[in-house]
Amino acid sequence: MKARRLLVTLAVVAALGGIFAFGLLRGEPDRDLPSELIGRPAPSFDIPLYERYQGQYGDVLSLSEYLGERPLVVNFWASWCAPCYVEAPVLQSYWQEYQDTDVLFVGVQTQDKGQYEEGRAFMDQFGLGFPNGIDDDSRMSIGWGLLGVPETFFIDRDGVVREKHIGPVTPEVMERQLAALLE
Amino acid sequence: MPLELGVVGGAAAFLAFAVALYGAVVGSLGAWRRDARLMTSARLSSVAGFLLATVAVVVMQTALLTDDFSVSYVAAHSRIASPIWVKVVTMWAALEGSILLWAWLLSGYTALLAAIAPLSPLRPWALAIMQGVQTFFFFVLAFLANPFTVLAVPPLDGPGPNELLQNHWMMAVHPLLMYLGFVGLTVPFAYAMAALITRRPGSEWMTVTRRWTLTGWGFLSAAIVAGGWWSYEVLGWGGYWAWDPVENVSLMPWLTATAFIHSVQVQERRQMLKPWNVMLILLTFSLSILGTFLTRSGVVSSVHAFGNGPVGPAFLAFFLLVTLGAFALLAVRWDDVKDRAELDSLVSREGSFLGVNVLFLALTFAVLLGTLFPLIVEAVSGARVTVGPPFFDQVTLPLWLLVLLLMGIGPLLPWRKAEDQLLSRNLAWLLGGLVVSGALAWVLGVRKVYPMLTVALAGYNLVSLALLLTGALVPRLRLATRPAVVVIRRYAFENRRRVGSMVVHFAVVIIAVGVAFSSGYRVDEQLRVDIGGSAQFEGYTLTALDTFMEQTPGRISSGAIVQVSRDGAFVGTLRPRLNVFGAGGRPIPTPAVLYRPSHDVYLNLNSTVGPDTQFVVLRAVKSPLVTWIWVGGLVLVFGVIYSLGGATRALPAHATRASTVAQEA
Amino acid sequence: MTAAAPVGPAVRRARWIAVLLACFASLAVAQQVQLENRVYEIAGKLRCPVCTSESVADSSVQLAIQMREIIQEQLNDGRSEAQILAFFQERYGDWILLDPPKRGLHLLVWVLPVVGAILGVTALFVLGRRWQRRSHEPIDVDPADLARVRSELASEET
To answer: Residue B627: is its pLDDT beyond 70?
Structure first.
């Protein structure tokens, strides 16, 4: 009887300990939530572009023109977001390397209402060559199920979302994802 | 070279750790060997521990008040421009400082206990347990979250404490109340452990700690209400309870402690439920540590989480150790603790207390499950799920209503067994109260189920209180030779515990009605108001007269001056604003509230205000009867204080045991 | 579903800063939409995606403000509460609902409290019965028990 009671106590405490240890090891909750969009056709949007990209891509970039035609890398960023400054040079260097393939990068400034000057300064700082526009009312954020910035979506030739990367992209991530998109 | 404050504080924290460890080890050893010298030494060490902890607190306060940024905590959390009161409370505005506060209060309680607790075989063990808990806190303070680290290159100024905390004076009070509650409930825990260790599972541990328990419970209750009021005044969404994990973890020990203070009365009167009561107090303490772990580790997502570091794992280890140790000890000692419970009828006072136990435990379970469920699901299946307010409301509301139901009938039931005649007379009255107040609510236009039931149960509870009072007073008045006032005053003074409990129950009724209406009939709108123009809200006209800017030390505010009127008559002026603390700080929306007995009008600014602002966007909330929650909280505290004056009722254990045996023979 | 890329501690920290900023730094820039009570009722059932444990109704983050406006627009278009919740659920998954959907594993969180309460009440009655029986039949005490009680009593008195 005594042994059984002890055993039950031990089992309960061990179960609790296991769950909490899992919680501790997992790190912050909710930060690497799998996207609902993966495996589904990417939603379209029409994004007003910054002046410097308008000559080549038009005043407004319609994603639907490219979806199902070319592989896409859609990157969401904001001028107040510190990790975005970490990943911008990575994105730019891969854009330079891959701009002659048919993959297209699209930058979306989001959750950053009215911060146009800050946006321009951001693009100046990293000399971003791929088209960037602003999602002034954060509708694209919501439409794409964003949990924060930066987040980067990789969309294949069929217009299907292959992967979402949360947090700043690294060269390893870009290598792997671009290889998958272009295979 | 002058001695640096950080060095002194760090040394005090380390010495406090060493002394607590000494007290715990030597105290246990002394109690084990019954060595009076060791026990006395341990007892005195608790005073030394308190003095050392006080030195640490004084050092911290000095560093904060003199802006000594060579102390890491001050550099990380204080700011020169803050007003003095903010600097004082900055001590518990972040993790390290709050552990210092907790450890200091704990050492104060231990020293007080050492000074005033009656000599008994339990005392040395209880003190050793207290010092053991203290050892953990000072260990964390000295080694894992040391606020006294000396910075070689101190900054010229710091960022200041979390803006949400310095935005309201309640932040000076709420954490203090919370820790006083947790620390207070450590005392009955320590005594219960002592009772288990010494195999003296009678009622001594419980009667000795009655006042400590009640004080702790009172502080915890006050802390929860005060925290609600802080949320209401600061967070800007017009509510006071969001079922955030931080709130849940403060509620859980409160729930088990509430079960405990009811359940111990059964043991006091009937010498039963001994193992159950021990379990409840172990659970209460264990849950208070669990709460600290959950909120300090970032394991569950919470608005108020203090962040990561080695403190989370340390609290987890301590939680597991305490839980395992305490419950394993209970399991080993079960045969000593278990009593021969006897019940004449479930329809009795003890029966109702048993019911209350079940309800509060069910509530604790539901809250715990809801809080941990996302974590459990993720651990088991990897899926993500959120459990939020709608879940907690749906699951706990029926249980709360049942609590109200038992609260009305329970105190009217006599011990052992209710006589049918008296019972049915009382039930008729109660039912009458239920139906009449329910009908009254209907007539007044209440149609929603929960507010309706709450009103009905509130009326029923008022009738119950009236029956209790008349039942006690009428015979006394009838036999009295002195004026009624004297008789009533005498009754109130001689039955402080009973009267105190009636006051607390009355407060619970007030709070229940406030909660039911403020959540059931709240109206929430967002309005755009041009400066100089007005908007309609729930029968009120809100006129934005002007915008304003003002600067107080360490704070810049901008906002709108909104005149509230009804049917052309002036009601009040509100100034919802944005507060900015320090250069580059973010604006904190700070709501303005028009407190009224029937309903509050609550305005929060949802737009920025500048010199050329043309319009403001206001979130307007009408919250019926919400003020009564705070009033109820005050009444509750009064009831607890009143009841603390009462004597401890301790039936001599032998007498009851003997009579039981006589019955059997 | 592809495996998530490994995330190092530094990145985590950076990410965490971003989240904090998202939650706090961007306060409502003037919105111009009037919102009715119904919007807040629905928003209270949704979790603010960039915050920790705050509902869309309670948060003052830009994204939450925008979501409230979307809810108002959809209400204006005559969509029902269920449709609006589904709109967000489709994009964010079950996670966005503060009220876990009553199916699959999630059912447990709804069922267990009820089971717990029922078990509690059952235990109350079973124990109550047992204790009542004891008190009603005081004569039927096992002599061994009685002897034990007496010896215990005697030992306690010494």
So the answer is: yes
Check if the beta carbon of residue C98 is closer than 8 Å to that of residue C44.
yes
Cα–Cα distance between A164 and A144 in angstroms, integer?
10
Query: Following DSSP, what letter does each residue of C26-60 receive, concatenated?
Result: -B-------B-HHHHHHHTTBB-TTSSS-BTTT--
Where does the pLDDT of residue C17 fall: very low under 50, low under 70, confident under 90, or very high at 90 and above?
very low
Among residues B459, B598, B604, which one has the least CA distance to residue B521? B598
Do C82 and C146 lie in a common domain? no
How many structural domains are present in chain C?
Answer: 2
Q: Is the pLDDT of residue C30 over 60?
A: no
- Quick: pLDDT tens for A116-171: 899 999 999 999 999 999 998 888 988 898 888 899 999 999 999 999 998 889 99
**Per residue in B134-169, pLDDT tens?**
999 999 999 999 999 999 888 988 888 888 778 888
Chain C residues whose beta carbon lies within 8 Å of the beta carbon of residue A147: 49-50, 92
Which positions 4-63 of C are in contact with B (Cβ < 8 Å)? 24-25, 27-37, 39-41, 44-45, 47, 51-55, 57-58, 60
Rounded Cα gap, residues B102 and B174, in angstroms: 13
What are the backbone dihedrals phi and psi of residue B565, each rounded to the nearest 5 degrees, phi first? -135, 160
Q: For residue A3, what are the domain limits?
A: 1-30
Contact B517, B606 (CB under 8 A): no
φ and ψ at A26, to 5 degrees? -70, -25
DSSP class of residue B144?
I
The pair of three-digit structure tokens given for residue B379, joined into one six-digit string: 């651990």
Residues A10 and A91 in one domain: no
Pairwise CA distance, residues A167 & A173, whole Å? 11
CB atoms inside a 10 Å sphere around CB B639? 22
Q: d(Cα A172, Cα A176) in Å, to the nearest integer?
A: 6
| pLDDT tens-digit series, residues A9-50 | 999 999 999 999 888 887 665 556 778 888 999 999 999 999
Structure tokens at A120: 């321009």
Phi, psi for residue B561 in degrees, rounded to 5: -100, 115
**Within 10 Å of residue A100's Cβ, how many Cβ atoms?**
7
Q: Which of residues 70-109 of A touch C (CB under 8 A)?
A: 78, 80-84, 86
| Residue A40 sits in the same domain as residue A20 | no
Other residues' Cβ atoms within 10 Å of the Cβ of residue C154 = 9
> What value of ipTM does the predicted structure carry?
0.83
Domain that holds residue C31: 7-99
| Tens-digit pLDDT profile for residues C93-124 | 888 999 888 888 888 899 999 999 999 999 98
Rounded Cα distance between A74 and A35, Å, is 14
**Contact call for A23 and B300, based on CB within 8 A:** yes
Asked if the Cβ–Cβ distance from A145 to C25 is below 8 Å, we say: no
- Residue B415 DSSP label: S
Spatial contact of A91 and A128, defined as CB atoms under 8 Å apart: yes
